[in-house]
Write a structure and sequence with these properties.
With 152 residues, this protein is of the alpha+beta class. The chain contains 2 helices and 7 strands.
């Protein structure tokens, strides 16, 4: 994998991680969303909506994954990332049970990055103190996974 490709994947991962962290700080949760690298190497955002008032995260994740699979087959993306608010599997011995999971995939590369977090008490104080922290993060956990879109 080239240095340019590694840099582009890192930027894609950072994009999803930063958006998820802003959403957690503002609302304490988020629905799955994604981003992808287009053929020109630019990051573009992806969101899903299933037309209902009560959004189901697993349905939105499947919807995003389906769109990404189609885009990969149409060669309109070269890599993607999907962020989701998840319970971290116990085998990873995470500091906190909740986490941001960012799935990043490109041809020859597939990884899940878990960012454990916990919401801090007294979130209401954030209205009065902009710098008041609302989320605590623990050490990230990177896991190599089988590809789901860019399969051989």
């Amino acid at each position: 994998m080239t240095v340019e490709r590694i840099s582009a994947l890192a930027a894609l991962l950072r994009h999803c991680e930063e958006v998820a962290q802003v959403l957690l700080a503002d609302t304490g949760e988020f629905h799955p969303f994604g981003a992808y690298l287009n053929a020109n190497g630019e990051i573009e955002a992806l969101a899903a909506y299933n037309g209902t008032e009560h959004l189901c995260s697993s349905e939105l994740y499947k919807l995003l994954h389906g769109v990404i699979t189609k885009m990969a087959n149409d060669r309109t993306l070269v890599a993607y990332a999907i962020a989701a608010d998840v319970s971290i599997p116990s085998q990873f011995n995470s500091t906190f049970p909740d986490g941001i999971r960012v799935q990043v995939e490109a041809p020859g590369y597939s990884r899940d990055l878990y960012i454990p977090y916990r919401l801090l008490p007294m979130r209401a104080l954030r209205k009065f103190f902009v710098v008041f922290p609302t989320v605590e993060y623990a050490e990230q956990i990177a896991v190599d996974v089988d590809p789901s879109v860019f399969t051989a």
